[in-house]
Write a structure and sequence with these properties.
Layout (H helix, E strand, L loop, with lengths): L14 H6 L10 E8 L5 E3 L7 E3 L1 H14 L3 E7 L16 H12 L4 E6 L13 E2 L2 E2 L1 H17 L4 E4 L6 H11 L8 E6 L6 H7 L19 H12 L4 E5 L5 H11 L3 E5 L1 H12 L5 H15 L3 E4 L2 H13 L1
Parallel strand pairs: 1-3, 1-4, 1-12, 4-5, 5-8, 9-10, 10-11, 11-12
Antiparallel strand pairs: 2-3, 6-7
Helix pairs in contact: 2-3, 2-11, 4-5, 7-8
The protein binds ligand PBG.
Amino acid sequence: MAFPETRLRRLRRSKPLRELVRETELSAAHLVQPLFVTAGESVREPVASMPGIERLSISEAVAEVTEIAAAGIRAVLLFGIPASKDEVASEAYDDEGVIQMAVRALKEAHPEIVVVTDVCLCEYTSHGHCGVIRSGEVDNDLTLELLAKTAISHAGADADAVAPSDMMDGRVGAIRRQLDEEGHSGVPIIAYSAKYASAFYGPFREAADSTPEFGDRRGYQMDPANAEEAIREARLDLEEGADVVMVKPALPYLDVIHRVKQATGAPVAAYHVSGEYSMLKAAAGEGWLDERAAALESLVAIRRAGAEFIVTYFAKDAAAWLAEEARR
Ligand code: PBG
């Protein structure tokens, strides 16, 4: 039946009516807050390109998680900024490294919070690439060993899940095998399966001090023009033992989120990345956009595309906004 029998506006006439027929739910339970944890004491260092985001030393991160948890967020993703970097990313897999110590402190203070760790070498290498360099290139298979060691040391510190973001081939399998061998068969892998070589990581690289010293990441991260390949990546990761497949960035890749979800049926995560956050913050700062409305609309769109959960720098604020909206 067509107009005038059918009038789709009937169900849009009031807020409760709209909410009765809403197809997509967005709540704090779907959001993960990334945190930058830095070596040192009592550090709270603002990241210039990401208003509202700071690099935190461990005790400050524990305090921040108290606030995040009070807002209703139940999961965090940790990135480490080590005291020193070298060619082989030694601090990434040091049991006394900044992330390992942060995980222990966080799990002790907040056992109920899901602590996920980013597993990558770029924050720990002196050259800023995500793996070991050999003959001017990131060597895939040498890197696998170090990534597996990193994941083990995170699991040993009591991380609830590990999230490899390096885009080496075979890393999910290497990490899964090693975790299982060393008694961590219960620790899930959230694989950054379709991670694109994106300009939207710019602000993150300032925050994590991980800009590659030479070249770029196009030799390992995906070409933004490809979507079929994202499905292959996701399928391979699942075959290797991934528990969740992630697409990153989020808004420019909603079609990829949707396709990966349709093709695999697996739990899908999306990473609403630093550049996506900074764009909204900058426009809102100029008074050109309503920050809250634009951020919540972005997050619901990512959920609608098919993501179960979203890693976003807006998590803490979005949780507060959603709680306020529910009370209205
Ligand atoms: C590490 C890593 C990056 C991001 C997450 N993990 C940076 C990169 O690949 O250069 C980006 C996250 C963001 O932009 O918010 N490999």
